[in-house]
Design brief:
Arc Repressor Mutant, subunit A; six-stranded mixed sheet; Rossmann fold
């Protein structure tokens, strides 16, 4: 973009659409330097068309979005909005969660706030301790992926619902025992993601598809439900004979366990695997190769997560949860709740994952079971 007026119109359009936009995103979108973007933003701010915030640009005060109004309201005694603290508690800072955390941090920073992160351990008592610590530090809203099972999980959710600060559940929903708990939530449609994988394999000619996972989690539960529902709706063979638990890739005994699963898949006539997560899919692909099989000619593989699936040999087709966007939406919803705690209705938002097609499924042909397993 060469004309300043055209750049500035694009900046205004982005701010109108999104409310708050990071300068880094504008640099990438416009294809110009950060200095040029800052100069354009300064011109627009001087004309009263936008308002500059730390690391970004937002609508002017008279038209500020809810999240920005919330940060302004959270600054007592004239403290700058940047002092507003958003607390976040996740069960682990590994595996699924780093992109979610990054998304939340980006959204909070773009709105002028600060994210304080605490790691828990899939334990209700620890969740409560970490939340209390964040409240003691002055957190004005909370993002949390709490333990929701058992009586301890129910007690934790009831306590979260009683807090005077807004609480938003991330990748969690209240269980059936608490159907009217008035907490906002943002989740990924994992069961739909399983359906995307199965339907993709069916279009390639596969009819016997195994579901394999290395650890049970809320994500695994939803994937299993989605796999079963899709298999049933399509009239495919589906039974516990096609559902397998395996040890984590690289853990003691993993190779023998994966070989045993592959043998059982052979006996069941399986031609395709849907695997949670990438590491286990890569391990199964390796063991299949060592057994003289090729992916995708003899066996198709779809992974769920898409963290390292592209680095596999061959690159794995994968279902990708929108992790970064999940975090940013969660933060935006929590900030909006801060701005309107009484009138805003409870929001339950579900984001769809996407299917990323690579080389591990091929064309599949008739997808008949190989005879040389």
């Amino acid at each position: 973009m060469t004309l300043a007026s055209e750049r500035q119109e694009l900046i205004l359009a982005a701010v109108r659409e999104r409310g708050t936009v990071r300068l880094a995103d504008l640099v990438a979108r416009l294809g110009v330097t950060a200095v040029t973007v800052r100069r354009d933003v300064t011109i627009l701010a001087d004309r009263g068309l936008v308002q500059r915030v730390h690391g970004g640009v937002t609508q002017p005060h008279r038209a500020q979005p809810p999240e920005q109004r919330a940060l302004a309201a959270s600054s007592p005694f004239g403290r700058p909005p940047g002092q507003a603290l958003v607390g976040m508690v996740v069960p682990t800072v590994e595996f699924y969660w780093p992109p979610v955390i990054q998304g939340a941090q980006s959204a909070v920073a773009a709105a002028g706030g600060r994210l304080a992160l605490r790691g828990s351990a899939y334990d209700a008592a620890e969740d409560r301790r970490q939340v209390s610590a964040l409240l003691d530090r002055g957190a004005r809203t909370l993002l949390i992926a709490p333990t929701t099972t058992g009586e301890a999980g129910l007690d934790l959710l009831r306590w979260l619902g009683s807090l005077t600060v807004p609480v938003l559940l991330v990748e969690r929903l209240p269980p059936p025992a608490l159907p009217t708990l008035p907490l906002d939530a943002v989740t990924t449609a994992h069961s739909l993601g399983a359906g995307l994988a199965v339907r993709h394999l069916v279009t390639l000619g596969h009819h016997r598809i195994a579901f394999i996972t290395a650890r049970f989690s809320p994500t695994t539960k939803a994937l299993l439900e989605g796999w079963r529902e899709t298999v049933a709706s399509l009239g495919l063979p589906g039974s516990e004979d096609l559902e397998f638990d395996v040890p984590a890739y690289g853990s003691p005994g993993w190779a023998d366990a994966y070989d045993a699963v592959l043998r059982r898949c052979q006996d069941a006539g399986v031609t395709a695997l849907f695997v949670h997560s990438d590491r286990e899919a890569i391990g199964l692909t390796e063991r299949a190769r060592d057994r003289g099989l090729t992916v995708p000619d003899d066996l198709a593989v779809v992974s769920y997560d898409d963290e390292v699936a592209a680095a596999s040999d061959p690159p794995l087709t994968a279902v990708r949860p929108p992790k970064h966007r999940l975090g940013s939406v969660a933060a935006e919803m929590a900030l909006a709740r801060m701005a309107d705690p009484a009138e805003r209705p409870v929001h339950r938002v579900q984001l769809w994952p996407t299917l990323v097609v690579r080389a591990s499924c091929g064309g599949a042909g008739t997808a008949s079971a190989p005879t040389d397993w």
